[in-house]
Structure formats: C-alpha cells, structure tokens
Amino acid sequence: MGFEAIVVLLVIITAVVLFATEWLSVDLVALLIMVSLVLTGIISADEGVAGFSNNATLTVAFMFVLSASLLKTGALQQMGPRLTSIFQKNHMLGMILMMVLVAFVSAFVNNTPVVAIFIPVVMQVAQGIGQSPSKLLIPLSYASIFGGSCTLIGSSTNILVSGIAQKAGLEPFSMFLLTPVGIVLLIAGILYMAFFGIKILPDRKQETDLGNKFSVRDYLAEIQLSEESDSVGQKIMDAPLVRQLELDIIEVRRENGNQHYLPPGDLVLRAGDTLKVHFNMDKMIQLKEQAKINPATAISINNNLLTDKNTTLVELIITSKSEFDGKSLKELDFRRKYRAVPLAIKHREEVLHERLQEARLQPGDLILAEVKTHFLDNLKELEKKQESPFIVLSEAGMTDFNRRNFYIVAAIGAAVIIAATLDIIPIMIATIAGATALVLSRCITMKEFYSAIEWKVVFLLAGALSMGVAMKNSGLADIIAGGLIVHLGPWGPVAVVSGIYLITVLLTEIMSNNATAALIAPIAIAMAGTMGVSPLPFLMAVTFAASAGFMSPVGYQTHMMIYSAGQYKFTDFLKVGSLLSFIFWILASLLIPYFFPFYP
Predict the structure, then answer these.
(1) Chain-centroid distance, C-alpha 233
(2) Residue 318 — φ and ψ, nearest 5°?
C-alpha cells in the first residue's frame, strides 16, 4: 500500500469515527474530508470542489424545493381523519394503507419532512382508536424508507450513488431503475410489519396529562415577594432571585389583579408580587432558607399551576435537520424567540427537569414548554417549513388545504418525473426547471425556496464525493476490492453482491447513509472491474443497503424523530429491525442479480 493510499485510509477511518460519534456535524466532517485530501495532494483543488457542481448534488438541492412546495399545500395533513376511520373499521387494513400511503409519498418526496408531517397525524390516529403511538410510529419511519428505495428521487442516497456511477464513466440511474427490487422489498416490509412486526412492538400507553407525563408538577411553585426582598424594584433580568437561583418566571400576578404571562425581562418586580416559577430543586432549598422571603407565605406548590387559559402546554419534537441540534436553549434564546418557557426535556428515556437552559439538544428530544396561547399560531407556521426546527405535537393544528397550489405542484412534479423518465431532458435540468416554475406560479417564494434546501445534505454530498475520487486516485479502492474478492470471489459474484450489501447495511447503522454510500460505492465499482462483470448489481447492493438501517435509532434520520414521541428504547428497534434486515438481505441477494445481470 502506497503513501497516498495510507493517507486516504487514515482520512476515512477518522471520518467514520466522527460520523459514528457525531462529535462534529456530518456536513462539517464532509468539508474536513475535502480540505484534508486537497491539502495532502491526493486530489486537486478542482476535484475537491467538483462535488458542488455534480449533477447528484444539484438534483438533490432542487428536489428539496419540490418537496417543500407539496408539503406547503397541506394535502398530507388531511389524511388524519380518514385514516382514523379506516383503523376503527379494520386495524390491519388501516396499518397497511398508512404504510402504503407514506411509502408512496416518500418515493417522490424527501422522507424526513414526510415523517415530520405524519407524526402528529399518526398520534391523532392512535388517540382516535385508543392505541399506543408506539405501535404506529416505527411502521411510519420504516414505510418512509421502503418508499424511498423505489425511485431515483426517493432518497438523496439513490441520487448520490447514481452521481458516483456517472463520475466513474458509467450510465446514471434512470428514474425507475430501482423500482422492480424496491417494490418487492416494499411489499415484504409492509407484510412483515402488519403481520409480525406489530406484535413485537411495545405497547406503551401515553399519559394524556402532560404535567404527569413529564413529572413537572413538583418543579413548579408560587413565590410571594415581601417588602424586604432584594428583588423588589429590580428588573426580572437583574433580580437576584433570577440571577442567583436560576428561576424561570412564567407569570407575575400583582396585588391589584394585573397579570403578566411570560413576562419580559425588563418588567420591574414589586412587593407583594406572586411569581409562578419553574425551579431547580437544589436552588429552591436555598430559596426557602433565605430570610428575605416570608417563610409563612412565600412558597406554595399546588396542582393547579399548569392550567391557565392564557397559556398552553405544548410538546415540541426536535427534527433531524433542526437548528436546535447540538445547541442549548440558552444559546437559542428560546424563551424570547419563541415566547415559551421550557418545563422539561425528554431525551431518549430520560426526563430532565433542572438546568434546562444548559442541556444540549438532539434530534428526537421532546421539549415540554408553556407558550402564550396567542403565539401558538406562530409556532405552527414555523412547523410548516421544510427545515422546521421542531414539530408541534400536543397542539398540532391542521394546515389549510390549498387546492389550487396542490394541483399546480402535482402537475409540475409529474412533468419533472415524466421528462426525466423519458430522457427528454436530464433530471438535474428537470428539477431546476420544476423549482423555477413553482416560484413563477407563486406556490413558493424565493425566501422559501432558499430555506427549503437542506444545505447540510448538500455539503455532505459534495464533500463525500471527493472521498470517492481520492479512493480511486490513490488506488485504495482497488486494494480494498482485491482483498474482498480474495475472500468472497471463490463463491461467485452473487456472494460478492451479498457481502457488499451486508457490509453497507452494518455501516449505515452507525453512520450517515450518504457517507456510507460514498465510501462503499467506489469499492463496489472497483470490485466489478476486477471480476470483469457489470458494476450495476454491485451499485444496487450499495444503494438499497445504505437506506436499510432498521436495527438502531441512529440507523436512519427519521428514527430519531419518533424515538421520544413513541417512548421507545434502543432494544425496540433491535427486536423489530433485526429480522427485517435479515429478510431484506436475503431478498436483495436473490433479486439484485436477477433484475441486474452480471453479464448484460
């Protein structure tokens, strides 16, 4: 192994560790890969930035605009009442139809926002039929993966592998090249979940009272300020009560009857004010010991502090592309920006009540917050965006259905698909033309156009593509391919395809599916070249396996979004997803060589 190959191998190992541990964001890791490879001379500067102008990268970017336009019409949110009715009549039929619907939409729309839209819908269905959401949310996430594997535009991973193939001098994937295998896997996946998977999914009943669900009642108190309090006459932001004891003041009630809900920081406190606060238990003990607060009347804790007509309790689910990811509520200026007071944060199986402002947020975390009722509509407007920072769960409202825009978006989307399928124009040009037409038809504004693009994915694809070029330039792809062929080659090309699928699916359980595809695809092409067979079946194995992360909540980005909402544990995904992954592995090993021959 030469020096260049060793350097690329070290870069890849470092990248895999960073992708798996998420110490740095995936887009930053991708950029570091590109910079490292250029600075070490493995690839040229032009080759390093070529990923930004790659057909795959541009196609994915403009597909996000098409997806956002469809979601904005509100068409998908109209499914809730209809699904509830079907579930009530026939639960099995309802489960199958729900998964078919989600899979169909995910075949043409980016699946992350699809799942974000459907989480409140599924929660509504679960409540309507009296069933635990934990029985429906994993099937929702899985169905989005099934559908995304059926068309070229169903997943950014599919487009990425097609771009890698094209860069290697091969034909890019056609729109429905994946469909034959994808449909079989889709049917198998739905039948598995409907007849077997649902039986081993946990049945965890949801607590309807949010105060009890998050156990926040014991962390709310009322404090009455005496004349001797050193906080009297001070602005809330400067009051020792707030600065020293880290209290969140939710409400101020004056002796004259005036009330201030979620008061601003410049409100001056007065003697006799009664403060409704969210507190840290250790700090509350200190508060009780302070002599400047009347010990007889200062502290009272009761069960009515969560009920108020002027404020509303909401659950906010952090999405996978959220600006909240990796940040604290303090850094986000959560209270001022969203006019909301955090009362608890649910991270995986742990509920946090204290030091909420410092807690680092992750996708799937649930924030219980008290929000001014009149500000709730603003939160729902934010939820409609392609890169919505959260899903408003408890108080999710129905988006008005814009019939005119829906027909226009559907027509433009169909035109893009037909043009790309019939090779009238390249898919990249088709998606750019479609996105432009949506702006001209006023279905989406230019501001929404820019915000719809998930730049993290764009940078990830551009950076990851440079890794494939480096593997080829350094000869590392050929070295790894040769090593794998030594062990799998004697069993024939079918065994090699099966081995590639297995390696890819195991890697995608611990790191980004796009990063996995970018790593394995060049090796797959090199293996096909060494064996003298068509590279297409090898690339198909990478494409399908990279999106088949069913066994862990980190296996696919939509899993993290449903994790806390469904009250899941890590083992729930392992129990349900292990057998499903095995079934897909066997089916893919048999179907891919059949539909994509080694000797065309």
Answers:
(1) 46
(2) -75, 125
Alpha-carbon span 203 to 138, nearest angstrom: 12
Q: Give yes or no for a contact between 578 and 506, defined as CB atoms under 8 angstroms apart.
A: no
Residue 367: which H helix or E strand, with range? strand 366-372
Is 518 in contact with 160 (CB distance < 8 Å)?
A: yes
Cβ(96)–Cβ(190) below 8 Å: yes
- At position 366, the amino acid (one-letter code) is L
How is residue 237 written in tokens? 């932001």
47: Cα separation from own chain's centroid: 30
Segment 477-536, tens digit of pLDDT: 778 777 777 777 778 899 999 999 998 998 888 777 888 888 888 889 888 888 889 999
Could you give the angle at the alpha carbon of 217 between the alpha carbons of 212 and 223, nearest 5°?
Answer: 165
C-beta atoms surrounding 398 within 10 Å: 14
How many Cα neighbours within 13 Å face the side chain of 135? 23
Res 280: pLDDT: 60
Q: What is the pTM of this model?
A: 0.76
Give per-residue pLDDT as tens, 523-574.
898 888 888 899 999 999 999 999 898 988 877 778 878 887 787 888 889 8
d(CA 557, CA 334): 24
Distance CA 338, CA 318 (A): 14
The dihedral of CA 339, 345, 347, 352: what is its sign? positive
For residue 90, the 8-state DSSP code is -
C-beta atoms surrounding 199 within 10 Å: 10
Q: How far is residue 322's CA from residue 328's CA, in Å, rounded to a whole number?
A: 12
Residue 502 burial (CB count, 10 A): 16
φ/ψ bin of 445: left (φ > 0), alpha (ψ from -120 to 50), beta (otherwise): beta
Cα–Cα dist 6/271, whole Å: 71
Rounded to a whole number of angstroms, the distance between the first and last alpha carbons of the chain is 33
CA distance 583 to 572: 18
| Average pLDDT, rounded, for the chain | 81
